[in-house]
Amino acid sequence: MHPGCCCCLPPPLLPFVFVLLTTLCGFSSVVALVVDRRQAACRRSSTAEWNYVLNIQQKPSHHPCIVGPSPEVDHLGGPILFSYIFMLLVLNVPTIRDGGAGMRVIIGDNGHCCQDTLGGSRPCRQDVLATIDPVARTILAIVILVARTIPSTDCSHFVLGDDDIHHGGRLFSGLMDSSCYLSLSRVDVYCPPLKRARVNAPFIPQGWENWENPTKLACSIDALPDECLFEILRRVEGKRERSISACVSKRWLMLLSSIRKCDVSSSSPSSISKADASCDHRKKPLPDLNESSVDEDLQEEEPVLFEEDAKCPSKCLEGKEATDTRLVAMAVGTGNRGGLGELLIRGCNNSRPVTDVGLGAIARGSPSLRVLSLWNSPSITDEGLTEIANCCPLLEKLDICKCPLISDKGITAIANKCPNLSSLTIESCQKIGDGGLQAIGRCCQNLWSVSVADLGLVGDQGIASLVSSTSSSLQKIRLQHLKITDASLAVIGLYGKEVADLVFANLPNISEKGFWVMGSGRGLQKLRSLIVISCGVTDVGLKAVAEGCPQLKKLCLRKSTYLSDAGLNGLLAAAGALENLQLEECNRISLVGIFGAILNGNAKLRSLELARCMGIKDISTYPASVPACCLPLQSLSISHCPGFGNTSVSLVGKLCPKLQYISLIGLVGLSDAGLLPLIEGCDQGLAKVSLDGCINITDAAVSALAKRHGRTLQTLSLEGCRKVTDESLLAIADSCFLLDDLDVSKSAITDEGVAALASSIGINLQVLSLSGCSKISARSLQHLKNLGHSLVGLNLQVCNLISAHAITSFQKKMWQCDILS
């Protein structure tokens, strides 16, 4: 018998042990009966589960009846339970001193109990051993506390928790969790909080690891403040080395971008004192082991790129690409090549917009910047523009649009520091007024182009000062949506000696007097192009301008509601050099006035464009007495003028036999009857014909066009001509050998017509549009492969019978062709 068994106890103690066991069993039975009614209520109201874990050191081989497989007993009474538990305690007390393996007894709130070996490989099982009530649990806890007072045992734990099976030891080893323990002699009683925190890793307060190991301290160059790091980086020799240093971190990138040229030069060898220089020449520099050894005779210095050696690159940032970080990176990266020569910023990143930080980095890193364009940059202020002015004296072109924070201060800084400025565009900058324009005119004598639009603070004073100060160089003027009056036009007419291009748009305060004074000033002797949009131009003012501008070649009048047939005749009679006339939304102009002006005008008019002139009405017949003259008109464009019909177009063909470019768009009243005389009357050969939206044109007119002008026709557009079928494609394939651009979108062609066109031997199409052709299927793709030697553009949008898979396969074979689908 093993000495740990009860039979090995001294004989005098045996009666005492059995009497004690009997007494405890009886007491437990009485307690169980008393609290029987309270037992169910306690179980229902219990919301937390209790685990009683008793760790008792036990040798596994001494007591197989206890340490072996756990016996399973269902619903044992309180007496048997406490007898069993107490016997475990008493029988295992001698073995505690020996220090054996561990055993646990687990009792949950559901009244079940189990016991298992702690050190064994068998996983713990929650076997049902007994069902007890809360009062019995309390008695069991007292028994356990009494048993734990026995010396020579390791510190075991009495733990209150949930039903999780734990493998011995404390559930919480952190400092925070250990505060929940109540130390009673050699027993630890754990009182959990309302909700058990599931923490497995030990809790270590912040900074205690350094307290335990004082030698473990952070040591990094990033711990230095920005001022110290700036002093280190500005002493890095070579622009290439500084660019490489920018790759370390964003912080280094920002610091390197803030280094000016003067800061770098201060750390050059010339700034070293003579005493230090006398000592430095005796020191031999240490070799760089990271680089391969190179013979000093063969080693050459890094070449420095100047303007004549390499052209400065240009960058364009659009939308979300426009950020300060990207600008800083470009500034540092291109610094070793002289920086950027041209920077275009289109759009704005709403989350990270471009600010003065990024623009300042560009200014410091690109001293040779010549072109700067800022569109929709609401975060850039006068500070950023001043930085550009201070660091980029070679700036030649400045384009500012929708920059509400830039005022006269920034424009004045540009004017004072950038004397080579030749082109200035300012739009939608509400803080810029007359002061900025006056500074530009005073300091920038090389200015040849200026565009001012949508500036509420600009008036006659700013425009007059700008034009009069740069009269010797200014060639292009564009004024749009300003509050200027006739006084500004008078100054332009007097001082615009070199002006060649002039644009007036949306100037509500300009009247007939302004145009008359401008033309009478006789200062616009070199004016070649005049565009007037929504201004108060009249017949008298327009005639005065034509007389005062003898070299006027292009005139565009849009939304001129006061212009009539008389003014048009006077204009063409006075403008002897006029070659291009564009009339848009001039509703007082009639068909008789147009033909009268052409017949009575000069012989140099080459191009006539009419758009949305609702005053033009078609005539039923034209008189036979119309002279069959030969007008020099070569280009005719009539767009969305519903009054132009068959008779009008036929008359044009009779009067203008030298036409080469015809564009008749949206003429729903035009049919074959009017187009055929025009085609037959053009004896010079048509090169470009556009009949978009002429829904009454049929295959007869297209076939006649192909046969008559197939040797010269290069571009043909038949978009929206619903009556055009495969017959037209057959005529084109047989006659138009120079055709390189064909558009038959939204027409009635089918696969047979495409096959005939693609199989033609002499056809060399480069661009073909089949968009919206509902009768085109995947069969056409097989025939279009024959055009692979010349086709570079193909439009297959809204072709519903062609699947996406077929287009993808076709695109793989036609890799040189750009396909829209």
From TrEMBL:
Q: Name one GO biological process term.
A: SCF-dependent proteasomal ubiquitin-dependent protein catabolic process
Q: Which UniProt keywords apply?
A: Ethylene signaling pathway, Membrane, Nucleus, Transmembrane, Transmembrane helix, Ubl conjugation pathway
Q: What subcellular locations does the record give?
A: Nucleus
Q: Where is the F-box/LRR-repeat protein 15-like leucin rich repeat domain?
A: 354-443, 656-814
Q: Which Pfam families match?
A: DUF7885 (PF25372), LRR_6 (PF13516)
Q: Does the keyword Transmembrane apply?
A: yes
Task: Tell me where the transmembrane regions lie.
Answer: 12-35
Source species, domain of life: Eukaryota
The ranges of region (Disordered) come to 263-298
Pathway the protein acts in: Protein modification; protein ubiquitination
Q: Which GO terms describe its cellular component?
A: nucleus; SCF ubiquitin ligase complex
Provide the protein name: F-box/LRR-repeat protein 15-like leucin rich repeat domain-containing protein
Source organism of this protein record: Colocasia esculenta (Wild taro)
